[in-house]
Design goal:
By secondary structure, the protein is mainly α. It folds into two domains: about 30 residues; about 110 residues, Orthogonal Bundle (Arc Repressor Mutant, subunit A). It has a three-stranded antiparallel beta sheet with strand order 1-3-2. A hairpin with a 7-residue loop joins β2 and β3. α2 crosses α5 and α3 packs across α4. The longest helix is centred in the N-terminal third of the chain and has 24 residues. It starts with 7 loop residues before the first helix and ends in an 18-residue tail after the last helix.
Length: about 160
């Protein structure tokens, strides 16, 4: 609980925010604990996962999918490219644009580690029953700004935003 002494609605909001951030950090730590063993950051894993499940896309789309700025995305893609996990392919219609796609090595890596990652997520969320997971998804969606359209391919079949 927050120690802020102010209007009740602000105290409740701060308390909810603190709990949400602590829960998110705890879940992320547990879910992503295997990534350093593969020399991957969370952002790098997000790019590989998005390309694996959604196919090649431009850098702007990738940034939206994993909720990163385009500047940060350039560095993430540069580092993945240095490891030969992704490649930039120039767009034939717009020579200024590139499509990012997995290399065979990148596809092998994400295919090898994604099942364990998905299992870790399932284990972490096993403390919630079906209805609680649905309620959590509903509440998270309610907190998300209406203009935000970034999606993860890990979203449920019925809720893609």
């Amino acid at each position: 609980m927050t120690h802020y002494q102010g209007p009740q609605h602000i105290v409740e909001s701060l308390d909810s925010f603190i709990k949400l951030m602590r829960a998110a950090e705890s879940v992320a730590t547990r879910v992503h604990q295997q990534l350093p063993a593969h020399n991957l950051t969370i952002s790098q894993f997000g790019v590989l996962e998005a390309l694996y499940h959604l196919g090649p896309m431009c850098q702007r789309q990738l940034a939206q999918k994993i909720l990163k700025s385009s500047g940060n995305m350039t560095m993430v893609i540069d580092n993945l490219e240095k490891r030969n996990l992704v490649v930039r392919v120039r767009n034939e219609q717009d020579r200024r644009a590139f499509t990012i796609q997995l290399t065979p090595e990148g596809e092998r890596l994400i295919a090898a580690i994604f099942p364990d990652q998905a299992q870790k997520i399932a284990e972490t969320f096993a403390v919630l029953d079906h209805n609680e997971k649905q309620e959590l998804a509903r509440l998270c969606k309610k907190l998300k700004p209406q203009h935000q359209t970034a999606r993860s391919s890990l979203s449920t079949e019925n809720d893609h935003d």
